[in-house]
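Narrative of activities, Objective 1.

The group set out to show that a structural description can be obtained from nothing but a protein's sequence at a throughput compatible with the screening campaign. Below is one input-output pair from the validation batch, recorded exactly as produced.
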Amino acid sequence: MMRSSDGVTDTSSSIGVSGWGKAAPVLAVYVAISLCGFVPIWIIAATSAPPTSAWVGVAVATVVAGARFAWVIGSGRRRIFEMCVWLFFYVFLGVAPLVQLRDQVDPSTTPDLPHDHDWTAVVIVLTAQVSYIAGNWWAARSRHRGNILPRGRIVDGHRTNVFLLALSALAVAYVGLVGPATLFLNRTERGQVTANVFGNDVLVTVLNAFVSVGLLVAIVARLEVERRRRVRSGQSRYLPVVLACIPLALIVNPIGSPRFTVLTVALGLFAAMGAYKSLARYRLTALVALGSMFLLFPVLDTFRRTLENTIEITDPLVSLKSGDFDGFSQIINTAAFVEVNGISWGNQILGVLLFFVPRSMWAEKPTDTGILLADFRGYAFTNLSAPLPAELYINGGWFALVLGSLVFGYVVYRLDARAELQLMRIGIPTVLGCVLPFYLIFAMRGSLLQATANLAVMLLTWFLVSRSADVSSQSRTGASGSASRKSK
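Output recorded for this entry:
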């Protein structure tokens, strides 16, 4: 066995699945040159020279994100979670605001921005990036160095079968109650029909989460069970998974479902079917995901309000100025809000943690941070984002921003380490490694209150279908199983 530079024992040689030790420095250099050089230079050449110098700071943040993204996909290990983190930073808090500031165009959803706070927003983004990297480094150099994370949670076959059956039945009942045709209405009309059927807004939110991402987690868990069975005996049974995917596909479709839910389901299933089995597949997925954020992300919102629209792929320099990319604008608004009203001392986070409490029981329940900022600025449209750095800053100022980003970097490293261990063992990531990374982009884009219901159901379902176990012994079992099959 070999030990990686991160201090985690490499078992890939004994398991026979592509793992650490196959870095691609040439690819990393080419990607870095493209993301840190060609793209920013192209944007600067294609846009006008603004009176503010804040775009220089945004260009620095773009280069940091691009360089880190290039390093992540050129690394000798599959950093699925971190890849998504830097994809978010590069697109939403790098390239998009660079275009907006250079052309002096505010997104239509956040007009008349207080641009005297531009540099504060730049420093917030850079602080979040540096603190995140420090947290990632801290995890790699922590007391767990040289440890293959022996304790963790693994999927339990019996629990998985129970919850797959229960959530599949719930999904079928959901389809029956709202009607299959309703599921293919535009998002606005579908939401109205669903609200009329179930009445309570909190119930609708939680139920939607269980029949979408909850069912997804159960399906991915069952795929993991079958993958383990295949490693041990060469046999697998996928009929229950296929049957469960039918109501899931009806409920989560590109017309009537939020785009992040559609992407989470599609990419979660894609990952569970082997999208990251090799480093080559992982790198290809990362590059395709990056390109999709520029080209397909705006397109997936085509049928949000009407089915009469036609799908059009627009010039990225145009789409990057739209309300889909209002993250940096909302950080500017956050800086202005804090200057006028001060920080919320954790009040916004409290609303996130207690999202399930209805307003009828808690009249003073904090509103969504995006709505809070929209009301502060007097915007008519309130369904706005609130990126993670903005959420941290509005709750606790610079201290919360640094500490929160540091802890976030630490947690992401641990999630990636566990996902990679399982990839080396059976060729697919952990359940969370399949379903959570791309949803993490939505959670980071914010606001957190919007993302919390799905995230909470995702984590709860994962907890219910898994059990605590010695991961190192599971790794040895997987290795011996693979070796025994090869010897036959």
